[in-house]
Predict the 3D structure of the following.
Amino acid sequence: MKTTFRSLLEKHEKFIGSYITFPADTAIEVMKQAGVDLVILDLEHEQLTMTEVMSMIRTCDACGMAAMVRVPGLDETSIRKALDMGASAIKVPGITNAAEAKLAVALCKYPPEGVRGACPFTRNNGYGVDRAGCYAKANREVAVSVIIEGVEGVRNMEEIIATPGIDTVSIGNIDLAVALGVPGQVFHPKVKQAVLDCAALCEQYGKSCSAQVLQPSDAAEFAKCKGISHYHTDFPQYLLYKAYKDLCEGLKSYSVKG
């Protein structure tokens, strides 16, 4: 049975997600076995194509992983195609105000809730089996996520979160750290405070928030934040690098020199 992002939210238990920027069907299956609940297929950075995204959405559906697609921005074509392929959630980066948040919702929803182009013959709509009911079903199921990444977005955080139709909000720790003049310091006090403020506002408005973590102990910062529904981790390529580096350094420590 397909696992959707909304179904994870409805469990009211914190879940775990990770971005993917490269073709990785096998990695998705391995990640699912390891306990990852969500993959965010990333069209904003690096190399993924729509064809590769569709293959990975199918893999997610087959193994019970929720599939979200991060689009490059408020791009109608990318959003429509990702949803037509069967993504259960869309993540839109760089949102700075309520008007942009409202547009993100509109692009993800069919009329009368939005302006998404209708076609019953897409994968998400069952290839035309239910030509009348598929649109209302999609509007109920699709989740809309936005990322606040800059100083203006932080300043307008409450109006973004309060926007009807926004389901979950993330703080872009990496971009915000750069914008604040502390590049690389993703847990700088100002960045961390933005995440905590976002979580509090999400709780107030009945929305959800994700928090970036690098290691399990980082979650302690957010354990009591009811507004935080899930964590997102480092990208798989860095986790692979770190695991191999630790392994290789450990093995080399036993090597006999000379």
